[in-house]
């Protein structure tokens, strides 16, 4: 039984979104089920321009320029965020958007990338996913 | 068997404390046992003025003013941190304070909200909670 | 059966590395298996000068000076990062270095503390560790 991975994406930092999607797709590749619950700053990444605005600022802090990071990522076979997200969903991964964050931030469904979102839910939705999961992460 | 959730609260960021308490109370509502282990910056939130000092700075960075965030949180039924914390404990959630952080930071029990704390413990206390948990998170 | 703990060390913040190592060694002391997967900013801590450069900046933000933190840590029996890392490995803990981060950052094995690293791996290595773990954390 390959099991299940449930990830809360609370952070909006680009490097964290990368980690989340890489772990998510990695779990899917090994036959696991995966759901990612986007909340707080993570949810903002699901806005229509959310993945573009991705600042590489923290990456830059590593002493490499943005251009260099991009070039090396390409060489290492690491995809752009857009591509990682659609790969994740093509592999069968599910994305849940946090309705509480939407209410507090005043975000409507039409402002979100509805094509990427499988479900709109609250904390109960997350707990239901996570309680049967072998891997639970807060990112 | 509804299971158990164990959360390490390492961060002192207000948005992270919110997430932790919402997940904690959500798990309790679904019949799970929950313990939250407050350590490092998280422990400072258990100081007598720790929940008041909560800066909404990061929330503000989302482009909303503090007043707007508060108003929308009320509309969405999201409680203030004080209320969330007491709700969590009324639902049966347990709060553990990290003794190592207390020693390193020179914090005494009388400086902490002793009314909120169920137990004072070390890493062994946490591991004992977490090894039987279905949901384990580091926040 | 004491079980297993799998920790992703994504952050490079000194306080987070401390937490990770304390939880790792705590789990080992209670008879669990432990692996820590160092990636992104965490991996940079495995560079030859990575543990030295550790800024105590965040610790300082707690209102204590660096010197005071060091003195109190000694009094509380909390070791320096170097010592914590070697203690962790002597207790049987395993350290995995993320090859993707190495490629993207252009880091070679000879630039890393090879004496501390048990394995070089990718996300599949992590998922294999984590899917049989009782405690899974993203730090």
Please give the structural blueprint.
The structure is a homotrimer of 139-residue chains.
Chain A lengths: L3 E6 L4 H16 L3 E6 L1 H5 L12 H5 L4 H10 L5 H10 L3 E5 H7 L13 E3 L1 H8 L4 E4 L1
Parallel strand pairs in A: 1-2, 1-5, 2-3, 3-4
Helix pairs in contact in A: 1-5
Characteristic terms for this protein:
homotrimer, 139 residues, alpha/beta, Hypothetical Protein Ychn, Chain: A, 5-stranded parallel beta sheet, 5 strands
How big a fraction of the residues of chain A is strand? Answer: 15-25%
Q: How is the quaternary structure best described? A: homotrimer
Please provide the ordered H/E string of secondary-structure elements of chain A: EHEHHHHEHEHE
Number of domains of chain A: 1
Predict the CATH topology of chain A: Hypothetical Protein Ychn, Chain: A
Low-confidence stretches of chain A: none
User: What percentage of residues of chain A falls in helices of 4 or more residues?
Assistant: 40-55%
The end-to-end distance of chain A, rounded to whole angstroms, is 25 Å
Question: Can you list the strand order of the major beta sheet of chain A?
Answer: 4-3-2-1-5
What structural class do you assign from the helix and strand content of chain A? alpha/beta
- In the CATH scheme, the class of chain A would be Alpha Beta
Counting H and I runs of at least 4 residues, what is the number of helices of chain A?
7
Largest sheet of chain A: 5 strands, parallel
Q: Give the overall shape of chain A, derived from the CA principal axes.
A: globular
Most extensive interface, residues per chain? A-B, 24 and 30 residues
Task: Just name the CATH architecture of chain A.
Answer: 3-Layer(aba) Sandwich
Rg of chain A from C-alpha positions? 15 Å
